[in-house]
Amino acid sequence: MMGIHTIEDTQVAAVFNNYPKHIQKKLLFLRQLTLDTASEIEAIHPLEETLKWGEPSYLTKNGSTIRIGWKKSSPHQYAMYFNCNTKLVDTFKELFGDTFHYEGNRAIVFDENDEIPVDELKQCISSSLTYHIRKHLPMLGM
């Protein structure tokens, strides 16, 4: 992975700082993976980091928003959320099967002790950040 990117938006930084420390580390990993993946794809610059629904979110003109977050109601889990009105998660399920745990058609959910399948998750991130370019392709061109 590339170097750590500073969180420039103070509201986003505050949300990360309020997560439990063991989960904060996991979410910062997902953040870094998202930023690194975005930096490898010319079609998605610039990537905006902001808050949506109170959670760190990543969006670009050619893509579908990705959110990452943790819920007090599931303290040992954290997730990467995708727009449920897209075919992203259904495509991930078809391609990656039980590599991931899913929440309906809106999220990939991780247990705090899960080993993250980085290559597969980068493909999911990339397809979301370029969704409007690839949504017409079979299996999103993955």
Describe what is shown at a glance.
By secondary structure, the protein is an alpha+beta fold.
Overall pLDDT confidence = 91
Number of strands: 6
Question: What characteristic shape results from the CA principal axes?
Answer: globular
Major sheet, described briefly?
A: 6 strands, antiparallel
Percentage of residues in helical conformation: 25-40%
List low-confidence stretches: none
If strands are numbered along the chain, what order do they take across the biggest sheet?
1-2-3-4-6-5
Keywords:
142 residues; 5 helices; 37% helix; 6-stranded antiparallel sheet
Protein described:
By secondary structure, the protein is α+β, with helices and mostly antiparallel strands. The protein has 5 helices and 6 strands; from the N terminus they run ααββββαββαα. The chain has helices at residues 10-18, 21-39, 88-96, 118-129, 131-134, and strands at 48-52, 55-59, 66-69, 77-82, 101-103, 107-111. Strands 1-2-3-4-6-5 form a 6-stranded antiparallel sheet. A hairpin with a 6-residue loop joins strand 2 (55-59) and strand 3. Helix 2 crosses helix 4 (118-129) and helix 3 (88-96) packs antiparallel against helix 4. It is globular, with a radius of gyration of 14 Å. The chain starts with 9 loop residues before the first helix and ends in an 8-residue tail after the last helix.
Question: What secondary-structure arrangement, pairings included, does this model have?
Answer:
Elements: H1 10-18, H2 21-39, E1 48-52, E2 55-59, E3 66-69, E4 77-82, H3 88-96, E5 101-103, E6 107-111, H4 118-129, H5 131-134
Antiparallel strand pairs: 1-2, 2-3, 3-4, 4-6, 5-6
